[in-house]
Structures are given as C-alpha cells and as structure tokens.
Design goal:
Elements (H helix, E strand, L loop, with lengths): L1 H9 L4 H4 L2 H27 L16 H7 L5 H34 L4 H30 L7 H12 L1 H5 L1 H5 L6
Helix pairs in contact: 1-5, 3-5, 6-7
C-alpha cells in the first residue's frame, strides 16, 4: 500500500505502468512467499519443541511466545534465532515503508496548493495510521518485558494487531485496487 501511495503521488502519470497487473502479481507473490517461508520456519521450530506443560494456550490462536512458554527445554537460542529472523523481515518491510513515505512527504510538501496537499495526505494517512497501530502493538506484544506479561494483556494485544488493522482498512485486505 505504501508503494501504491508513492506511485500515485510521486509518479501519477506512470501509475498504470508501474502498478499494472504484472507488477501487482509480482508484489503479491513476493509477500506470500516471504510470509510462507517465515511461517514455515516458526512452524518447524514449534513442532520440534518438547512440550511438558500441557498443550492448552490462553490465546485464540497459536502464537510463538505462547508455545515457547509451554516448552520444557531451554529455548533461549531458538527464541533468539526466531527473533533475529523476524526482525530482519520486519526491518526490510519497515525500511521500504519508511522510504516510500519520506518520498511521499517530500512530494506533498512541493505541491503548491493547500487543497492539493490535503488531498494527498488524506489518501495516505489512513494507511499510515493502520500500519502504525499494527507495528506498535506487534512490537509491544513480542518485545514487552515478562514482568508485565499476563494472559489477558497478551490476548488484548494480539487482538489489536491481528483483528483491528484488517477491520480498520478492509479495502486493502479484501479487494484489489482498480485503476481508471
């Protein structure tokens, strides 16, 4: 979505060329492949853990930190490895989004009319708000100190980053963009 806003604002005459069906398929395939490989890594790690504290989670879906709490083995290096891989994936996405929005901000500030600036900002700010909500709650969920961890807080935070962003911005999750 950040690339869509970037092209729409910074290169509007090239929108149809840069975001044609082929480009959208390539970006979707890259996102799906990255997500699949990342999930495969987490799944393989979870299935290799010996669980000795039962198999019931206080969550509405299986999250890695909750599964690691059920393990009876020392999972420090597993957690560290998964954290490093996750941070690399997240950092790559964050850099891409940050670069796109810096370019958008530069382009918007060059628009001479206040009405044009308002229109450009209103196009991108909802996406930026949803991304900020998702990133901040996900970072809190996975990097919060264990001293403030509680099952109810974990459940609320996981709902915030897994349910609220798609509900807040459903047109980007469920329907493809069409260009006129």
């Amino acid at each position: 979505m950040s690339y869509d806003c970037y092209v729409a604002i910074c290169k509007p005459l090239h929108y149809g060329t840069l975001l044609g069906a082929r480009a959208c398929v390539h970006m979707a395939a890259a996102a799906w492949a990255t997500g699949f490989l990342h999930a495969l890594l987490h799944t393989a790690n979870a299935f290799s853990l010996p669980l000795c504290k039962g198999n019931a989670l206080d969550q509405f879906f299986c999250e890695i930190p909750q599964i690691l709490k059920l393990s009876c083995s020392n999972s420090y290096f597993r957690e560290l490895g998964l954290l490093v891989v996750s941070l690399l994936v997240i950092f790559g996405c964050f850099i891409f989004i940050l670069f796109s929005y810096v370019q958008i901000l530069r382009a918007v500030l060059r628009i001479p009319s206040e009405q044009g600036q308002h229109k450009a900002f209103s196009t991108c700010l909802p996406h930026l708000a949803v991304v900020s909500l998702f990133v901040s709650t996900a970072v809190f969920a996975y990097l919060k100190p264990p001293s403030i961890s509680s099952p109810s807080l974990d459940l609320v935070v996981s709902v915030l980053y897994s349910v609220v962003p798609p509900m807040a911005y459903p047109d980007e999750v469920f329907s493809p963009k069409t260009t006129a």
